[in-house]
């Protein structure tokens, strides 16, 4: 057999079209556009590309972007001061601090100053806690994209055995909670899990976010499994996933490619968060 490809490009475009319509409705009702503030500090080339793509996506759907650029020497307090102003700016619905920050800055000292109501990335403790409790929240973007890809393919999550490889706060942990919320039985694996294949072979749904090139081989997955590759490992200018695609595509029922899968969903879900924040909190 050969797996069906879960096309992140097509689904992200579909979501962006919906967001464009909803953003236009918000504009007509409120007399202003939905707004996202993006902060970039330092000279990281990849970060500059990511910010450019996010701003371009904003313009595509009619979300206004507010851009703040700082050089490598920016102080922690300068960034905190900007965030304080943005928290009080009624034209700004979401705030995004592009990571990584310069090495002399303590990341959490800056991110924790963002209002949970404007947490575009969905990383803050309040939103993570609300996800755990099943309350409305701005959820982490990449995990949200994973769930959207699975649902769009018509795959039932309830009652399935789901295995998540990786336990980061931005992918592994939140995607496990989201799968649990959808009534999957969830197993979490990580770098200290012995004999990883014992667990990956059980998975009806396998989400891999370990940050290791080709960690998962074809003989480690269940026949017909849904395999979601969140990995983005750059080597000699080429992007590789955590899943060895060529061997896994022969056994899986559904699989995401890298590139072209989950990565394309992240920006779409980011903008969905910003619109959601505007709809939930703009009248506060």
CATH fold-level topology of the largest domain: Rossmann fold
Number of strands: 11
Neighbour order of strands in the largest sheet: 1-11-8-7-5-6
Shape: globular
Contiguous uncertain segments of 5+ residues: none
Number of helix segments? 10
Kindly state the mean pLDDT as a whole number? 96
| Percent range of helical residues | 40-55%
Compressed to H and E, one letter per element, the order equals: EHEHEHEHHHEHEHEEEEHEH
Class by helix and strand content?
alpha/beta
Distance between the termini: 53 Å
CATH hierarchy class name of the largest domain: Alpha Beta
Annotated CATH homologous superfamily of the largest domain: NAD(P)-binding Rossmann-like Domain
Number of domains: 2
Return the CATH architecture of the largest domain: 3-Layer(aba) Sandwich
C-alpha Rg (nearest Å): 19 Å
Portion in strands: 15-25%
Please describe the biggest sheet, giving its number of strands, its sense, and whether it closes into a barrel.
Answer: 6 strands, parallel
Write the layout of secondary structure elements.
Blueprint: E1 4-5, H1 8-30, E2 35-41, H2 45-61, E3 64-70, H3 76-87, E4 94-97, H4 107-111, H5 125-133, H6 141-152, E5 161-165, H7 172-181, E6 185-189, H8 197-200, E7 205-208, E8 226-229, E9 233-235, E10 238-240, H9 245-248, E11 254-255, H10 263-281
Parallel strand pairs: 1-11, 2-3, 2-4, 5-6, 5-7, 7-8, 8-11
Antiparallel strand pairs: 9-10
